[in-house]
Write a structure and sequence with these properties.
Elements: H1 2-24, E1 33-39, E2 42-48, E3 58-61, E4 64-68, E5 79-84, E6 102-105, E7 117-125, H2 139-147, E8 151-161, E9 164-167
Parallel strand pairs: 5-7
Antiparallel strand pairs: 1-2, 2-9, 3-4, 5-6, 7-8
Length: 170
């Protein structure tokens, strides 16, 4: 009897370890969208959890599922994610090729102001826009383009979770 109890205890512990390890890994990788994003001239990857799922409680921007909708959680901290929707953008588009845009991050892990929560600021062509400035690969470049009338910023109010998981290709 004692042997059975010990055997069941060991099997139970192994089961809990396996299940716990699987749950700790987060959402299934098939539901995560990895999106390239610029930071200071380098390309990093945002991991958008559940972006490929059919969860109806997602933040949605045009044709893009952004994972859990955190828009009602307006207190920070959150970083700024510039979405540059302009001719010359190359990073991300809808499945039909429309709404091609680039991302520019205000911070990455290890830099001041980093948070895996982002507020989307849309950057669209201004009256003085020249496609030759593309791509814009830093917040400083975005700010210069805004100051010179090449881009206009619009706060979408959308907040979502997407941790930066590292540099693309590394």
């Amino acid at each position: 009897m004692l042997r059975k109890l010990i055997t069941f205890s060991i099997l139970g512990a192994v089961f809990l370890f396996v299940v716990g390890s699987a749950l700790a890994e987060g959402p299934p990788s098939t539901n995560i969208e990895l999106e390239p994003s610029y930071y200071n001239g380098e390309v990093y990857l945002l991991a958008i959890p559940s972006a490929k799922s059919s969860n109806p409680n997602q933040a949605v921007f045009a044709c893009f599922n952004l994972g859990p909708d955190l828009t009602d959680q307006t207190t920070g901290p959150y970083g700024t994610l510039y979405v540059i929707l302009a001719p010359g953008a190359t990073q991300v588009a809808c499945p039909d090729g429309s709404l091609r845009h680039d991302h520019v991050l205000s911070a990455i892990p290890g830099t001041p102001g980093y948070s895996p929560r982002w507020r989307i600021i849309l950057a669209t062509p201004g009256d003085a826009f020249d496609p030759a400035i593309m791509p814009l690969t830093s917040t400083e470049a975005v700010e210069v383009a805004v100051a010179s009338g090449q881009l206009v910023l619009t706060d979408t109010g959308i907040v979502f979770n997407a941790p930066v998981i590292g540099q693309a290709g590394r």
